[in-house]
Amino acid sequence: MAEQRCRRRAGAHADHVRRPETVKPERADRLTAQELKVLRLVARGMSNSEIAAALVIVEQTAKTHVSRVFAKLGVRDRAQAIVAAYEMGIVVPGE
């Protein structure tokens, strides 16, 4: 009985939660070659300093690229960017 009430409450709450839109594949076309590289590195869990080292750029430039990727994809954080990268096929599990 309690479990059933809990499910009902969770279901009612879920109706009010704003779910992020799925990133449209054509948004990937907006990314430059460098931004695609940055997105792949973000998807691998790299920090801005690690991205900078991998691409031989300064950290501030890496931060700028990450911010532009977020803006072009319409995502607000790394987690959403990673999901978008997988959904668009930019990153494949096991790469």
UniProtKB/TrEMBL annotation:
Keyword Transmembrane helix tagged: no
Pfam family, one: GerE
GO MF, any single term: DNA binding
Residues in coiled coil: none
Gene3D superfamilies: Winged helix-like DNA-binding domain superfamily/Winged helix DNA-binding domain
Residues covered by region (Disordered): 1-28
Basic residues composition bias: residue spans: 1-11
Entry keyword set: DNA-binding, Transcription, Transcription regulation
SUPFAM superfamilies to which the protein is assigned, alphabetical: C-terminal effector domain of the bipartite response regulators (SSF46894)
GO biological process, one term: regulation of DNA-templated transcription
Stored PANTHER family: DNA-BINDING TRANSCRIPTIONAL ACTIVATOR DEVR_DOSR
Protein name (record): Helix-turn-helix transcriptional regulator
